[in-house]
Amino acid sequence: MLRWTIIFIVLAIIAGIFGFGGIAAGAAGIAKILFFIFIVLLIISLIRGRKA
């Protein structure tokens, strides 16, 4: 999932450089959502891993 976040961040940067503001904002928004989902899943897996 972190790979998809990085892909969308790079896409947003490239789109921003070429002047596609709407696409850049959309890709950055998707990257932000994926990053927060990744963080939540990481915290859950750390908590569940300690109980074993």
* Number of H- or I-type helical stretches: 2
Binned, the helix content reads over 70%
Radius of gyration: 14 Å
Order of helices and strands: HH
Distance between the termini: 24 Å
Q: Which segments are poorly predicted (pLDDT under 50) over 5 or more consecutive residues?
A: none
Largest sheet: none
Query: What structural category do the secondary elements indicate?
Result: mainly alpha
Q: How would the global form be characterised?
A: rod-shaped
Mean pLDDT: 85
Percent strand: under 5%
DSSP, total strands:
0
Protein name: DUF1328 family protein
Keywords: Cell membrane, Membrane, Transmembrane, Transmembrane helix
Organism: Bizionia sediminis
Transmembrane segments: 7-24, 30-47
